[in-house]
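Lab meeting notes turned into a lecture example. A postdoc, R.K., suggested we walk through two folding results consecutively so the class can see how the record format repeats. The first protein's sequence and structure tokens come next.
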Amino acid sequence: MTNRITELFGIEYPIIQAGMVWCSPWELASAVSNAGGLGIIGSASMYPDVLHTHIQRCKESTDKPFAVNVALMYPDIDKLMDIIVGEEVKIVFTSAGNPATWTSFLKEKDIKVVQVVGSVKFAVKSEQAGVNAIVAEGFEAGGHNGREETTTMVLIPLVKEAVKIPVLAAGGIATGRAMLAAMALGADGVQIGTRFVASEESSGHQNFKDRIVGLGEGETKLVLKKLIPVRMIKNQFFEQVNEAEHRGASEEELKKLLGKARAKQGMFEGNLEEGELEIGEVGALIKEIKPAAQIVKEIWEEFLSARKELENL
């Protein structure tokens, strides 16, 4: 398949693996890229020297394009950017911040920039900042999310109408059928997180992966809207946050409750009750942990099969 996304990144399929915090190491990124998609190293949970190692190992493991995701709120972001430029990474996905801050710098280095957004307003701002493409992430997504709570089915056509650059759909997408639906709404490709968290190559703790494949409908919820909205699995920590929000806890109280390294404790270290477990609603559809390459293959084959079914209607 050839379209604006495959041509922009030089990949076979318009399937992008999201750069999820604590779950997106070089092993996962290289496996997805080798399978024909675009793998992404998630730098938000990495010290600069750790990111450096992951980029080098990824380059050793694939000759295909891969990207690095950078959270724009990262405290030592200049160090990350220096490493990305020095290692000649060609694609950067930015999120959680103002795209105008680093887009020009990266593009001057001949690096393609993609910004993750949760609203039409920020999609337009990102295009004005000069990014090459946008990830429009709906309310269903795991991790940090938009305050507007716009669902993917509504967000994609709104963003598509508002911008001219390529649009990747994210949020609630884990299958080929969902990919086809997103592209029918106007997306040029998809970014998938939750399905790849539950992969063999993900660096998420085995306890976390097992919890994902055991999820039922309604077991995640968006909370912490006074800070940065995040969708997480309901557990002991979630109940503490939920109770605090219901009684009108202040931003400072919520920050104290969240503390430090809460996401690491849950997703990387496997504490399923006291840790923060960020994941998307679509986890309820995932029943098996599989190799990343198999996931890419199955999504693409189901996409083609579903497209053929629709053509025969």
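The second example is placed directly after the first for contrast:
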Amino acid sequence: MADTWQFDTSIYHYTLDDYIERYRLNEQTLSYRNLAKAKIKGIEVALRWQPSALIEHHFSYQHQTGEDRDNNTLADLHPNALKWQSLLSMKQINISHSLSYRFKQDDVASSEQARDSALIWDMSLSYQLNQQQSISLIVNNLTNEHYYASADDKASFEPKRNVTLKTEYIF
């Protein structure tokens, strides 16, 4: 099999009426308001490279911005991020990894908090025992990164390094 490449890109610009946004009334209370007008702009780029029948790589980048009619940053925007995923598939063994870099978020809405950048690495190894059964070892957050799920000021931390041993049986 020869090298195969695939490139995808999406560029978007939305002008929205009646955008519902979460905001802070006081230290204990969150509420929602209707923003009459809002704009969300972004770009997503993805590159898939398969150098052989056994190996596949996916590279992606996302960037998003959003503002209300007074040029205030919208809440709940996706963080800018780079990602590299690889998969090695042999007869009975699959090895995969995902390495993501989330950029620092410092232009956030009033109900959010700035977030530091984060490097997140996940890996898995799976072995097909027979037609019906497989076993997998999965390690998430291999770098043991301490990062939040979102910029929401009430967001929880994502799980630190964790390991899962999984078996599947199909009958």
